[in-house]
Amino acid sequence: MLKVFMTLCLVAALKGQANADAFIDAVVERHNYYRALHGVPAVTENAAITAFAQDFATYLDTNGLWHHNPNASANGYGENLSWMSNPAATGQDHVDNLYINEANFYAQQQYCGEEPNMSYFAYYGHYTQIVWESSLEIGVGKSSGYVVINYSPPGNYYNMFAENVPCPA
Predict the structure, then answer these.
(1) Sign of CA dihedral 114, 97, 66, 44
(2) SS3 at position 60
(3) Mean per-residue pLDDT for 90-98?
(4) 12 — pLDDT class (breaks 50, 70, 90)
(5) Do 48 and 139 contact (CB within 8 A), yes or no?
(6) Which of 107, 112, 122, 99 is nearest to 32 (CA)?
């Protein structure tokens, strides 16, 4: 009986890891879809950054909090946070949620190829981090509806938008 129980636990753990891996893959793929539209290099998933992001996603979920990780920049990471109440939300859904509305705002303000007005950063900062040309690695953490995406090197530096956020082709 113990052997059957242990086998079921192992199968459940493997299925959970497969689901986590599929979610991470979807986040990476969707980033790269949008990055290709802007003609910037693809990002790859980095396991150490993913572990960092996962720890913070679990912390946010466990404590019912919503704020950026104060240790992200100290560790050399940029960060996007996403939350969706729908448990069936995919990695693609989370990235689309961060990109679409903010990309439209950025375009409407005619910031493309220019330095944006930083007083409106809250309206475009997720979008610009997703397509920030010099960010080449990401890590993805998910706990319930909380998703943390960390970027290395980080983006969204003042006076560097014009060279790192090219217009979509």
Answers:
(1) negative
(2) helix
(3) 97
(4) very low
(5) yes
(6) 99
Residue 11 has pLDDT above 90, yes or no: no
CA dihedral 124, 129, 130, 134 (to 10 degrees): 140
The pLDDT mean for the chain works out to 91
H-helix or E-strand containing 82? strand 78-83
Q: Is the separation of the CB atoms in 137 and 151 below 8 Å? A: yes
Residues 6+ apart with CB under 8 A from 76: 152, 153, 154
CA distance 33 to 145: 23
φ, ψ for residue 140, nearest 5 deg: -130, 125
- Six token digits for residue 4: 């059957």
Q: According to the model, what pLDDT value does residue 17 have?
A: 63
φ, ψ of residue 89 in degrees (nearest 5): -60, 135
Helices (H) and strands (E) in the chain, counts: 5, 4
Q: How far apart are the first and last CA of the chain?
A: 60
